[in-house]
Amino acid sequence: MIAKDGEILTDDQSITQITREDTFEHPTTKKIIDNHLIYKQLVSNSETYMIEFIRKRGIILISVLGKVAPLKASIAKLLGANPSYTRILGEVRLTHDKEGVKTVYLHEGFWGQMFFGNNKNSIINHN
Question: Are 82 and 62 in contact (CB under 8 A)?
């Protein structure tokens, strides 16, 4: 969803294209993470929104199984659980292209990734 001044500008997830770049396995969480994540929405033939998350560094990196008793961690692993959380600090860039006129907004931001299962090699599916 993209909103401005309390008005929703676009929120149709079915037209969102997601591109992942510079993806690697994080050494702490053992999950995939992207240094560059791009969400693009073609609202019409003449209007596009693109939001880019450009990772600078992780500020919270937690493998949750390392925070529980060893027995509980072993049981969780047997059940296929491998929860982890990463909070990321970086640059967030919004580009609005309407009829060939591009407006770019750039700010520092943070976002998070929470994984519950053993999804080290997870993928993003979109149509």
Answer: no
Confidence (pTM): 0.78
Q: Are 69 and 76 in contact (CB under 8 A)?
A: no
User: What distance in Å separates the CA atoms of residue 52 and residue 126, rounded to the nearest whole number?
Assistant: 17
28's CB contacts (< 8 A; 6+ apart) are 58, 61, 62, 63, 84
As a whole number, mean pLDDT of residues 94-99 equals 96
What does the angle CA 110 – CA 112 – CA 117 come to, to the nearest 5 degrees? 170
Four-residue CA torsion sign, 70, 33, 107, 96: negative
| Nearest-angstrom CA–CA distance, 127 and 125 | 7
The Cα–Cα gap between 84 and 78 comes to 16
Sign of the torsion formed by the C-alpha atoms of 18, 20, 26 and 31 = positive
Instruction: Show me where the domains of the chain are located.
Output: 13-23+35-117
pLDDT at 18 over 50: yes
